[in-house]
Design a protein that fits this description.
It is built from 13 helices and twelve strands. The chain has helices at residues 28-33, 35-45, 50-56, 93-105, 133-144, 175-192, 206-216, 237-242, 263-275, 289-299, 309-320, 326-339, 350-357, and strands spanning 66-72, 79-81, 89-91, 110-115, 149-154, 167-169, 172-174, 196-199, 223-230, 279-283, 303-307, 344-347. The strands form two sheets. The chain has an eight-stranded parallel β-barrel with strand order 1-4-5-8-9-10-11-12, surrounded by nine helices. A two-stranded antiparallel sheet has the order 6-7. It binds ligand PBG. Ligand PBG is lined by residues 153, 155, 157, 165, 200, 236, 239-240, 252, 308-309.
Length: 359
């Protein structure tokens, strides 16, 4: 029978309004004839109690899925709050180790390190200083929290005085000159004991160059998590305060991807996998859930998604203002990223969320 014949269920456009005790028609026999309505009731039976919802939940966020980003700065005892990312701070190596220990204790298996060097130059030479902040942090974490997986971001933008992700030749970021610098930093991170290196610069061929260099220097065990589909996004704003890495001129659109391009993202992922990436990343996460899905479906490789600084700060700001239930919003967002196909989620919420997820 046609459900629109029920006056109680007709909201004018043929869609059924939610069933509530006040909108139940009294005539239940009519429901039994209405197959569609029966299906609606069927669906609701499994939403009735928290216990039943728990039983049929399809996606479960776990601390195992999370990677915690951290910013290492020079000095001792330093913990410098990042204004645009409430709850996030730049920390000197000693505090990073303490934070790593807490994060591990919360159940998070991995962290990713970003460095803020003492000095910047046009080449970004601090990036491959074996005694730089990141390298010291890796060694200390590996010694004090040995089971924690240490990932390092490999990029030049925090280290160059111009703030671009590579070497400037003429007026451009030069691709091949940059590869050489990235290889040096990746090797330096590997020497310090990094488990995974994560190039985020978006130069062509960097995964292959880094893979070859790692292999020929005795680091074939070091994995590569490639920022494969990294878009020129407005959502990196707060990070650039945290990492002091905003470009001094121009923008990153000549190397990071143009946000409207999905097929191109698939080609980037394919290239990185061919060049030897072990994990491929989509970044940012929320505006690109469709691409997380596509990457997982098309390549079936381990997929990471970066819930970036702007995504974090929006939720934090709304939460602090009382405009949103921050805890629920966070869990909803991270679960959605996982449902879209991400195996790993880089998120500034990692430690807090892991604590909430623990029984
Ligand atoms: C460095 C890098 C950036 C982020 C991660 N690695 C910034 C950028 O490309 O400008 C962004 C992370 C975030 O916003 O949380 N290239």
């Amino acid at each position: 029978m046609d459900l629109r014949e029920f006056p109680h269920n007709d909201n004018g456009n043929g869609n059924l309004p939610p069933i509530s005790p006040t909108t139940y028609p009294r005539d239940w026999s009519a429901y039994n004839e209405a197959q569609t309505q029966e299906k609606a009731l069927f669906a609701r039976r499994l939403r009735r109690t928290e216990t039943i919802r728990r039983m049929v939940r399809e996606t479960r966020l776990s601390p195992d899925d999370l990677i915690m980003p951290m910013f290492v700065c020079p000095g001792r005892g330093v913990k410098k709050a990042v204004e645009s990312m409430p709850g996030v701070a730049q920390m000197s190596v000693d505090n990073i180790v303490a934070e790593a220990r807490e994060t591990w204790a919360a159940g998070v298996p991995a962290l990713i390190l970003f460095g803020i060097p003492e000095r910047k130059d046009s080449q970004g030479s601090e990036a491959w200083n074996d005694n730089g902040e990141v390298q010291r942090a890796i060694r200390e974490i590996k010694e004090r929290v040995p089971s924690m997986a240490v990932i390092t971001d490999v990029c030049m933008c925090e280290y160059t005085d111009h703030g671009h992700c590579g070497a400037i030749v003429g007026a451009e970021v030069d691709n091949d000159a940059t590869l050489e610098l990235l290889v040096r930093s990746a090797l330096s991170h590997a020497r310090a004991g990094a488990d995974i290196v994560a190039p985020s610069d978006m130069m062509d061929g960097r995964v292959g160059a880094i893979r070859a260099a790692l292999d020929s220097n005795g680091f074939s065990h070091v994995a590569i998590m490639a920022y494969s589909a990294k878009f020129a996004s407005a959502f990196y704003g707060p990070f650039r305060e945290a990492a002091e890495s905003a470009p001094k001129f121009g923008d990153r659109r000549s190397y990071q991807m143009d946000p409207p391009n999905g097929d191109e993202a698939m080609r980037e992922v394919a290239l990185d996998l061919e060049e030897g990436a072990d994990i491929v990343m989509v970044k940012p996460a929320l505006p690109y859930l469709d691409l997380i899905w596509r990457v997982k479906q098309e390549f079936n490789a381990p997929v990471a998604a970066y819930n970036v600084s702007g995504e974090y700060s929006m939720i934090r700001a709304a939460g602090i203002n009382g405009w949103i239930d921050e805890e629920r919003a966070t869990l909803e967002v991270l679960t959605a990223i996982k449902r879209a196909g991400a195996d790993l989620i880089l998120t500034y919420f990692a430690k807090d969320v892991a604590r909430k997820l623990r029984p």
